[in-house]
Specification:
Strand content: 15-25%
Order of helices and strands: HEHEHHEHEHEH
Helix content: 40-55%
CATH architecture of the largest domain: 3-Layer(aba) Sandwich
Number of helices: 7
Number of strands: 5
Largest sheet: 5 strands, parallel
Radius of gyration: 18 Å
CATH topology of the largest domain: Rossmann fold
Number of domains: 2
CATH superfamily of the largest domain: HUPs
């Protein structure tokens, strides 16, 4: 009986992984309404560049770079992203309080409240979007309209497998209240 239950759990886990791998986050639709703010989570290539493009296209008024290394400056980003200096100066805040996805959501919540924003575009990699949305929902509840905007990547099997495990473990931890 125990081996049957273990086999069933393993099968459910494997099916969950396949579904996870084939239903990664998508970019926001081209006709998505502009938001008050955009929040980009650091840690993956193309994320910050995409967030600057969102500002350039007037799809958000202000941007929080959540989880930025404290040593990174706007000047560093301007060098990395040509033509972005004016936007960085007027419309970008570097948040360095967070160290993981959950604290990214907490940092973003404080920033959103401080600026009295009501909607945000959440920008992260496609493979990270599911867990990011989950953490943002847990922290922000229904206080804000959230438009997910995933940056397309080509994640490796190990990246997907690791992210799936983080997502499953986080869901279990919340369910078990630990």
């Amino acid at each position: 009986m125990i081996s049957r239950i273990a086999s069933l759990l393993l099968l459910l886990y494997a099916i969950g992984f396949v579904l996870f791998a084939f239903t990664l986050g998508k970019p926001a639709p081209a006709n998505a309404q502009p938001t008050d703010a955009a929040v980009v989570l650091t840690g993956g290539s193309g994320r910050i560049e995409h967030a600057i493009d969102v500002l350039r296209a007037h799809k958000a008024q202000r941007l929080l770079v959540a989880g930025a290394d404290p040593s990174v400056t706007k000047r560093d980003l301007a060098v990395r992203i040509p033509g972005s200096a004016a936007l960085l100066k007027c419309c970008v805040d570097l948040g360095s309080e967070s160290v993981d996805t959950r604290s990214n959501a907490e940092e973003a919540g404080r920033w959103l409240a401080k600026h009295n924003f009501h909607s945000l575009r959440l920008i992260t990699s496609d493979w990270h979007m599911r867990r990011a949305r989950y953490e943002f929902r847990k922290v922000l509840k229904d206080r804000y309209v959230v438009v997910p905007d995933a940056v397309h990547t080509e994640p490796s099997f190990l990246t997907l497998f690791g992210e799936y495990n983080k997502y499953v473990l986080r869901r279990i931890a919340v369910w078990a209240d630990i």
